[in-house]
Amino acid sequence: MHEWALAEGVITTAARFAEENGLTSVTEVVVMVGELQQVEHEVLHFAFDQLKTPLFKNAEFVLKTQPAKFKCRNCGHLWNFKAEGMTEEVSEAIHFVPEMAHVYIKCSQCGSPDFEVMEGRGVWLATIKGVRKTE
Amino acid sequence: MGRVIAVSSGKGGVGKSMVATTLALNLVKKGLKVGLLDLDFTSPSTHVILAVKGLYPEEEYGILPPLAHGLRYMSIVHYSLDEPAPLRGEDVSNAIIELLAITRWGELDILILDMPPGIGDATLDTLRLVPRIEYIVVTTPSVVAFQSVKRLLLLLLDLKIPVIGVLENMVMTRSSYIEDKVKGLGLKYLGAIDYDEGLEASIGEPAKLMKTGFSKGVAELARSLA
């Protein structure tokens, strides 16, 4: 998913969570970034900086990468995503639509395109730290 | 965003992509701002009809559908490069969500969705995610085609999705069978388009396509939507 739209999604979700939990100020947001889409951390940071609302003015955005792991549905083989050797075209295609992994990547054991992305797809909120107003 | 119109059918091979593409082109001819989104991820066809090659969406806070023959055009082939994309249901759903979320259409009068046939993931996701969706359903005169179409129509009626009507395509011998069935469901019969022998030769040449009898038939539908 694209960095900007992505960042918007994270901020919206984080804001909703903060609200639901009575946080008046957020101090830390940990975001997990799946390796598959090779999302650029700097671009994400920039987007967070531009999009953050006053609730997040003191927040540190921490980005952690989750390695991508695949499991073949055909033969059961488990293997890790390797970005090396991928052309820019293929990289970009997967960057925008991660399901394109099934077009360009095959099971390294049996060659099937029928595999499951077990880990490392998408971008999601891991933890939020903040300050609760105490009466 | 103006109207969002899904062109769908119960089965493949009834001419849905031809109708969607030709309808979009006819609407452009009428001066409207039109988008065409090919939602058939495992079997895309509109790029073949339009002979789109080497178009790539620019990235700007999302992705911008490139212009093809006056249409804002988005298809999975921009990313799959027309290689086989064997996708399971959940993957199709995720890919649809991805494209719908990151595509920036700009101001459009009409967005046409070329749907894959049937009532599977793409249909269910579009119904879930596209708020003001309307349907044009395509069938051939065959009883077999219409049985599948009927199932789609019943689903749409049940969910109270607006159905603009049913278009009968590839008609060889005129009969009122389809018209009667459609009206029997309380829906609008959009007309019959005769089987056009010259149509196949026009695939890949939109200018030629616009001159076919098929296109004239679709133009009538475009007139009612413009």
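qc> Chain A has a mean pLDDT of 92.
qc> done
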